[in-house]
Amino acid sequence: MKATVYSTETTEARNEAIEAARVALRENKAIVLPTDTVYGIAADAFSHAGVSTLLAAKGRSRTMPPPVLIFDEAVLPGLADEVSDDATALARKFWPGALTLILYSQPSLSWDLGETQGTVALRVPNDSLTIQLLREIGPLAVSSANKTGQQAATTAEAAAEQLGEDVEVIIDGGRRPIGAHEDALPAEALPSTIVDCTADRLVVVREGAISMEELRQVVPSIITKEELEAENRQSTAERAEERRAASSLVEEAESPTASAPVGLGDGPRASAPAAGSFNAHLVEGGQGTARVDQMRTKESIRQEIARREAAVKPLSQSDARKLLFDDADSHKSNE
């Protein structure tokens, strides 16, 4: 193992450990340090080489960027952009503590934590040793001290077993979390709760040491990732149903069998008027309406028009002149 393990049992040993960590971090190397949840592997957040070393030690790609630890909430505006009132309320309630907030990163920062999509996960740990280190060195990119897929280390010995060949310094701060009994298993150490604060509604990405009940006491509208996915599925189903309904209406309107305006002779047959009624009198005895068929077809109308034209066939021009002038001559002779 190439890493050096530093005790923190005395003030002198603690200062020596912090100085060794400071030197390693400035040289773009990774260290292991205790936090309030589990042990973490850390690198200078503004060192691309240091962050690359951290990711390589864990066996992670750049698609899984590490969170960043800061020493106080006052640092938040300098690192994060568009911090909502709800996010601020959570930070003030649970920092320092086991709460990680995913926020939009300040675009002017020159760090490279991986493929963050313009975001950064920030946390203030509740550990005096870590706070002292952060205050003196600055923000640290930190992930749990274990190989990907393995249990997070809760002791310096466990961290050394997994990462002793990949880091320069291991600071031994005792069993974590603070107060855990000697027989506690690594799986019993709850990680920090992670909340995504980049949307209008805050979403719990991972529930850990801080419960949903505690979070909702501060931000009642906060939801879990599963609840958000269920809402999205419901919205998708509702939109699909609306599209199907609209499509059905269009198909019905364009169908050849769709109802259309009824033309002359194409409509249903009207019922006959009651005998002796006024309507019956109009139909049966009215001038020009005798024997009117209540279901007049196009063919019957054409036949009727032809019959009427034949009955009142106009005179030819010669017949009309003969009739007109012969009649005039007879009037003269009578005079």
Automatic annotation (TrEMBL):
Entry-linked InterPro entries: DHBP_synth_RibB-like_a/b_dom, Sua5-like_dom, TC-AMP_synthase_SUA5
Compartments, as annotated in UniProt: Cytoplasm
Entry's EC annotation: 2.7.7.87
Chain intervals with Basic and acidic residues compositional bias: 229-245, 319-335
Keyword field: ATP-binding, Cytoplasm, Nucleotide-binding, Nucleotidyltransferase, Transferase, tRNA processing
Region (Disordered): 229-275, 308-335
Domain of life: Bacteria
Residue ranges annotated for the YrdC-like domain, each copy included: 15-210
TM stretches of this protein: none
Catalytic activity: L-threonine + hydrogencarbonate + ATP = L-threonylcarbamoyladenylate + diphosphate + H2O
Gene Ontology BP annotations: regulation of translational fidelity; tRNA processing
GO cellular component: cytoplasm
Gene Ontology terms for molecular function: ATP binding; double-stranded RNA binding; L-threonylcarbamoyladenylate synthase; tRNA binding
Cross-referenced PANTHER family: SUA5 (PTHR17490), THREONYLCARBAMOYL-AMP SYNTHASE (PTHR17490:SF16)
Family: Belongs to the SUA5 family.
Protein name per Swiss-Prot or TrEMBL: L-threonylcarbamoyladenylate synthase
